[in-house]
Amino acid sequence: PNHPLNAYLVTHHICGFGLKILGITVDAENIEDLYADTPCVYVGNHQNVYDVFVYGSIFPKYAFVIGKKSLKWVPFFGWVYALSGNLYIDRKDRNSAISTMTATEEVIRNNNKSLFVFPEGTRSRGKGIGPFKKGAFHVALNTKRPVVGMVATKYDFNLNKWKSGTVGFKVLKPYYITSTETLDADIENIHRGFVDFQSSYKNL
Questions:
Q1: Which of 34, 43, 42 is nearest to 119 (CA)?
Q2: Contact 62, 4 (CB under 8 A)
Q3: Taking 80 as the threshold, does the pLDDT of residue 79 lie above it?
Q4: What pLDDT was estimated at residue 84?
Q5: Residues 6+ apart with CB under 8 A from 67
Q6: How far apart (Å, rounded) are the C-alpha atoms in residues 10 and 76?
Q7: Highest mean pLDDT, choosing among 7-11, 132-136, 156-160
């Protein structure tokens, strides 16, 4: 219990199997960077429920997630989430949210773990990359960990068939945020990397 490898082992098998059933191939670049020894703050783009399959099949080792409190009530997924050392956040309660972020930084510092976050905070539903909230980037700054982007191309589909059968996926190079003075510019640079990959991927 409370070990992030639980999430890694379960999601890789189940989500990988789910992609095969759906007939989807993930064309991943720089995937080896996910398994480097340096703990970091992973950030991904949030599109819809199919993120579970795409990101789950590539989920990095020793990473934990911050998710909505309601996740604990989702059958099976909620159980795996709870047993993998992940944290819950109540965005409506500012004090609770601050407490969760403080606990997050302690886990990263003291346990040598990585954090995974969808910084948009909501699903884009195929409308491109939404604006990033600052929480994850403050964590990276405060813990002196690099930010590593994990960006997926749009996976527009109808009810039974995905558009191309292939999802482009790229692990961006580690990006260090070193000052609050440059935080906004740093976030914009990372965001631009997401937009550039989505717009230039060969299958789009």
A1: 43
A2: yes
A3: no
A4: 61
A5: 81, 86, 87, 88, 89
A6: 11
A7: 132-136
> Which two tokens mark 49?
């429920």
> Of the candidates 8, 17, 39, 197, which has an alpha carbon nearest to the alpha carbon of residue 113?
39
Total domains in the chain come to: 1
Q: Is the pLDDT of residue 20 over 60?
A: yes
pLDDT band at 159 (very low <50, low <70, confident <90, very high): very low
- Give the separation between CA 41 and CA 35, rounded to whole angstroms: 13
pLDDT higher than threshold 60 for residue 145: yes
Total Cβ atoms within 10 A of residue 22:
16
Could you tell me the pLDDT band of residue 197, with boundaries at 50, 70 and 90?
A: very high
- Provide the edge-to-edge strand list for the sheet that holds 166-171: 25-29, 166-171, 147-152, 41-44, 114-117, 63-68, 87-89
For residue 89, give the 3-state DSSP assignment. Answer: strand
Helix, coil or strand: residue 116? strand
- Give the contacts of 81 (CB within 8 A, at least 6 positions apart): 7, 65, 67, 71, 72, 74
Question: Could you tell me the two tokens for 157?
Answer: 């589909």
CATH number at residue 191: 3.40.1130.10
d(CA 77, CA 10): 10
